[in-house]
Design a protein that fits this description.
It is a single chain. The protein is of the alpha+beta class. It folds into two domains: about 5-140, no CATH class; about 155-200, no CATH class. Helices cover about 45% and strands about 15% of the residues. It has helices at about 5-20, 70-75, 95-100, 115-135, 140-150, 160-165, 170-180, 185-190, 190-200, and strands spanning about 25-30, 30-35, 40-50, 55-65, 95, 110. Strands 1, 2, 3, 4, 5 and 6 form a six-stranded antiparallel β-sheet that branches.
């Protein structure tokens, strides 16, 4: 039997995520919600802290933009196949609700004393007024390219280079390659990978 805290968490998942996201085309799998669009996929992951107990649950909200071209390039172990239901960690662009709204790494706590109505209000606001609008702004390749111009978006080191290359934005890919080549850590520790992308996208030194 689930504890009161676990039941409250289930209410949050159902009322603040599933009820809102299902009509928008998101499919639920565990604590993940995924929507496949023409150019990319969008995923919301509700992540529990590894330090939680049945009577005290801490969670945050992760978002991801799944870009097939990036996945096939950066994760070659997929053998040319795209997962039917991608997970947030393999998304090219990942942002937590803390980045989208709070400007801190925001986590939410649930225990026996939690006012579930207040938590539902805040979580619904997070989904409706921050996550959904963010996804509405990032639905196409052009949207992704605009997002990549924002230097405040936290990305893995080669993400911009790969996406620019895969989207055939070779001038932008060249600029990103030149920048990475000037980075001492990248050049000293990841030079072979950097040169692989240089050759793949026919960039120049």
């Amino acid at each position: 039997m689930k504890t009161v805290t676990e039941q409250k968490f289930d209410i949050i998942i159902k009322d603040c995520f599933q009820t809102i996201l299902k009509p928008l085309g998101f499919k639920k799998k565990g604590n993940n919600f995924y929507r496949q669009l023409q150019d990319l996929g969008q995923i919301i992951n509700i992540q529990k802290s590894s330090f939680y107990s049945k009577d005290h649950i801490s969670f945050t909200i992760n978002t991801g933009l799944f870009i097939p071209e990036y996945c096939l390039t950066f994760y070659p172990y997929h053998n040319g196949t795209i997962p039917n239901y991608p997970t947030e960690p393999i998304c090219a662009i990942r942002q937590r609700i803390g980045k989208l709204k709070y400007n801190i790494d925001k986590w939410f706590d649930i225990d026996l004393d939690t006012d579930i109505s207040e938590l539902k209000r805040e979580t619904t606001d997070n989904v409706l007024n921050f996550i959904v609008p963010y996804f509405e702004r990032t639905k196409t390749k052009s949207d992704v390219l605009r997002l990549l111009q924002d230097q405040n978006v936290n990305l893995d080191k080669f993400t911009r280079l790969i996406i620019f290359g895969e989207y055939k934005q070779f001038d932008k890919a060249q600029l990103e390659y030149d920048k990475l080549k000037q980075d001492k850590y990248t050049f000293n520790n990841m030079k072979s990978t950097l040169f692989e992308y240089r050759d793949k996208y026919k960039l120049t030194d």
